[in-house]
Amino acid sequence: MSLLVVGSVALDSVKTSFGEVSEVLGGAAVYSSVAASIFTQVNLVGVVGDDFPKEYIEYLQGRGIDTKGLKVTKGKTFRWKGLYEENLNEAITLETQLNVFASFDPELPQGYKDIKYVFLANIDPTLQLKVLRQIKKPKLVALDTMNYWINHKKDALLEIIKEIDVMVVNEAEVKQLSKEDNINKAMERIMAYGLKCLVVKKGEYGVVALHQEGFFFLPAFPLKEVKDPTGAGDTFAGGFMGYLSSQDEISFHCLKEAIAYGTALASFNVEDFSLERLRLVKREEVLERVKSLKNMVKFKDN
Amino acid sequence: MSLLVVGSVALDSVKTSFGEVSEVLGGAAVYSSVAASIFTQVNLVGVVGDDFPKEYIEYLQGRGIDTKGLKVTKGKTFRWKGLYEENLNEAITLETQLNVFASFDPELPQGYKDIKYVFLANIDPTLQLKVLRQIKKPKLVALDTMNYWINHKKDALLEIIKEIDVMVVNEAEVKQLSKEDNINKAMERIMAYGLKCLVVKKGEYGVVALHQEGFFFLPAFPLKEVKDPTGAGDTFAGGFMGYLSSQDEISFHCLKEAIAYGTALASFNVEDFSLERLRLVKREEVLERVKSLKNMVKFKDN
Q1: SS3 sequence, A100-133?
Q2: Taking Cα atoms as reference points, which of A168, A156, A155 lies closest to residue A196?
Q3: Domains of chain B, CATH where assigned
Q4: CA distance B234 to chain A (A)
């Protein structure tokens, strides 16, 4: 089945101890879509300015990503500038230029309204809700958000959380949203809004998921070099949703597999700047890392 | 087989958001010995002052812990005072009184020299080496250390690391000792000293082990309340070594099981101050948490 991804499409400038890049392809919806496209057909909804390089759109299309929902508008593309210091789990934002993204008003092309799998990447929850309302009968909806919306649009965020199936967020966001410091208690509180599964990204410490059937943990893939963590969480979510939309079922078993696929993809993404490594990843390489990850948590009898 | 534990025996004063305790039973060797005593016969080597409450020694003896190696010396017992704020992974030390511990000079009682399993808890590496030299034919030696010794006695520490089998340390210590920020690279560097297995404690993020056969990860048991993290790492190490010394083999499989037992025990320990919870733990409760932990990392096919 195909997947709908809605979110930011950006030009990123990033500096890490391994170097820097300027105005390269980025944005949550891009990382998610490219990751998901390894497993499924992706339909991207977003907005860019008329300065957005044509080759980037062609690249996405070349991966089988449908860009009918990617609106090109007069003006400048959303830009983000950040750096990572010692703590690779946390980006330091130097500059955010919303540009055309400030007036993003997602209208789904007619054909998109029957899509069953939906990933609402981090945008204003009011817009996430607007997208969701346009989907006729979704089978699985996942959502990401950020501290800004938790602070400024909490009511809208809580409204949509009650309507979705899976939330994919980071540790700090879960604590902030639940107003609870203990991560396990925080997760139970968020689950109580009626989620099927809450997936919490902990950066280099991996992922923990709370499902109606219990907890599930998976470490990050142990890399010896992380060049640029930008997009790791979005790549994870894209791999996770891409894998799920390629399957027939949404069991706990299937969600665990999706977490492993997302984790493997994220590990490739951070090996280079922008989408340099992710774009080269072969399905077999992903399968290999998934297998390694499973081995790293394997007991003789579990 | 029995286990030798050498390390600090202390009177701890601890404050957390759940309350505070003053001059209660503590110290790395105590937490480790009590945890290990669930699985095996423990022989404790340490030193206390003549102010050390007799009932604490009787308590240890009541658990079958041999205290022939616990020297009672004229003077005051080692005291540690600390508090935990929001970050429960890090203690803030308010006061350390070494007292009789400053002149600790471990001499093993004759019968201890044939012991096969040895846990050298965090003390001066020169003393750890002195203890190790007295053991005739150890089968498995594990060691913990701390930032102070890495800074001030690095040569002695590296000397003993080359002679032991398993190092059980925390994340910051591995990075500091290896002078490497990437934890996976750091672990490989430490392994290169000739360890069979390096076990890295990451607090609430669980444990990662690097063995000659590969990586192994286990999350911490997801608690909804942590009252006092003091001794968690020592309890882990004690449970780990206690389990191993109750087994016939030291395979990777067996080390993984030992990590699960140590993790389960540590999770009980942090549920209350001092050894209040740990002293009540039943073997069956430990088995139950071990089973839960295994379930939390279980795939259908791994």
Answers
A1: HHHHCCCCCCHHHHHCCEEEECCCCHHHHHHHHH
A2: A168
A3: 2-297 (3.40.1190.20)
A4: 22
CB–CB of B141/B195 below 8 Å?
no
Torsion of CA B162, B165, B171, B172, to 10 degrees: -30
B157-170 per-position pLDDT tens digit:
999 999 999 999 99
Task: Point out the residues of chain A with pLDDT beneath 50.
Answer: none
CA angle, A257 then A259 then A261, to 5°: 70
* ipTM value: 0.93
Residue A157 CB neighbours (<10 A): 21
Task: Please indicate whether, in this complex, the C-beta atoms of A295 and B302 are within 8 angstroms of each other.
Answer: yes
Q: Which residues of B touch A189 (CB under 8 A)?
A: none
Cβ separation of A224 and B182 shorter than 8 Å? Answer: yes
- Kindly determine whether residue A302 and residue B301, on different chains, have CB atoms separated by under 8 Å: no
pLDDT tens, position by position, B244-291: 999 978 999 999 999 999 999 999 999 999 999 999 999 999 999 999
Residue A153 near residue A126, CB atoms below 8 Å = yes
Q: pTM (2 decimals)? A: 0.95
Indicate if the pLDDT at residue B10 is higher than 70: yes
The count of CB pairs under 8 A between chains A and B is: 87
Rounded Cα distance, A287 and A268, in Å: 12
Average pLDDT over chain B, rounded to an integer: 96
Give the residue ranges of DSSP H helices in chain A. 28-36, 54-62, 125-134, 147-152, 154-161, 171-178, 183-191, 232-245, 252-269, 283-296
